[in-house]
Amino acid sequence: MSKRDYYVVLGISRTATAEEIKKAYRKKAKEFHPDRNSDNPDAEAQFKEVNEAHEVLKDPDKRAAYDRYGHGAFEGGMGGGRGGHPGQGDFASAFSDVFDDLFGDFMGGGRGGSGRPRATRGSDLRYNLRVTLEEAFAGIQKTISVPTSVPCSECAGTGAESGAEPVTCPTCSGMGKVRAQQGFFTVERTCPTCQGAGQMVNNPCKSCSGAGRVEKERSLSVNIPAGVETGTRIRLAGEGEAGLRGGPSGDLYIFIDVKEHNLFQRDGVNLFCRVPVSIGTAALGGDIEVPTIDGGRSRVKVPAGSQSGRQMRLRSKGMPALRGSATGDMYIELAVETPVNLTSRQKEIMREFEDTSADNNPEGSSFFSKVKTFWESMKS
Question: Which residues bind Zn(2+) 1 (predicted)?
Fold first, then answer.
């Protein structure tokens, strides 16, 4: 069977530029790649035909010979030049090109096209900041010291002494990667000479040893908004580690940890305070004074006959919401105290009270009534 015209195979004109040839080849190679055409028995032959056409037309000498003599230029050794027969020799390299296009994005690789190394972004940093509950309530501005990397002032972040420009790495020609042939496949790895940067500094800056950044402790002013909780994260864009050789800086993340309070317990925007009251106040009723998180005081009326665990709500005396204008409530929980270290007179009064208060303990009466019913049911 006669061979098809290489220009027809790639679907291009005879005046196509090198870039147009390359673009057409990659499109056709993807279209006929065997891995994408498992149901097409002719795909492998078409794929090889596309590679053969590309091997000839991408080379100026081979293309000139083909334009003059056609397919006969490569028969019987005529015009073979560097590549010999177009269907042989560099198939693995051609397959590697297609492999890059098919899987380069997924693998995080690819040739990029420009050959210029990308600037390396600096790492993000984390800073753990503890604040008091009072600070979380009101909000506060704090100054923190963060050990980090900053651009070197001596070389302006280039890593080169006296402002000299970095040079292209001779090992990878600026690609940042090198390739090694292993059988049918081409393995790509980070260039060992420039560590993937694509450039080298022949005369490195003495201050930063060519890194373009130096270690330094910085002081930052951080605004802590009212309503923060443990686990709240604050992001300071561009305040992280400096990029390598002029790359952008990372971000600084501040993680908030709110200390436990000795008076208040927090649940979201609400606060809880356990307040002890005397047995006399709980029985007769009265007013008590309780603290609030803003440093103030509130008077609370205790109803007569209050029991331990009873809660009373103070509206809008809790924590502010981190987002929005809402404010939580404060809950007072009564803890009725049993008096200790009684005097003789006090004991006498308590005995008289006990003897005359059999009907004044509703919770106790209810409990023992249930106990009596339980015992009777067990007997029957």
Answer: 152, 155, 205, 208
Q: Tell me the pLDDT of the chain averaged across its residues.
A: 81
Q: Is pLDDT of 115 > 90?
A: no
Spatial separation of the C-alpha atoms in residues 254 and 242, rounded to whole Å: 17
Residues annotated in a binding site: 152, 155, 169, 172, 191, 194, 205, 208
Residues placed in the known binding site for Zn(2+): 152, 155, 169, 172, 191, 194, 205, 208
Please indicate, yes or no, whether residues 162 and 240 belong to a single structural domain of this protein: yes
Q: Give the helix ranges, DSSP H, for the chain.
A: 6-10, 18-32, 43-57, 60-69, 91-107, 133-138, 279-284, 344-355, 362-379
Give the whole-angstrom CA distance, residue 166 versus residue 378: 94
Q: Which residues contact 150 (CB under 8 A, 6 or more apart)?
A: 213, 214, 216, 218, 242
By percentage, how much of the chain surpasses pLDDT 90? 36
**117 and 255 co-located in one domain:** yes
Rounded CA-CA distance 253/126 in Å is: 5
Query: What are the residues facing 256 on neighbouring strands?
Result: 129
Could you tell me the CA-to-CA distances from 117 to 82, 174, 247 in Å, in that order?
31, 7, 11
Q: Report the predicted TM-score, pTM, of the whole model to 2 decimal places.
A: 0.55
Range scoring the smallest mean pLDDT among 193-207, 251-265, 336-350: 193-207
> Containing domain of residue 373, as a range?
344-379
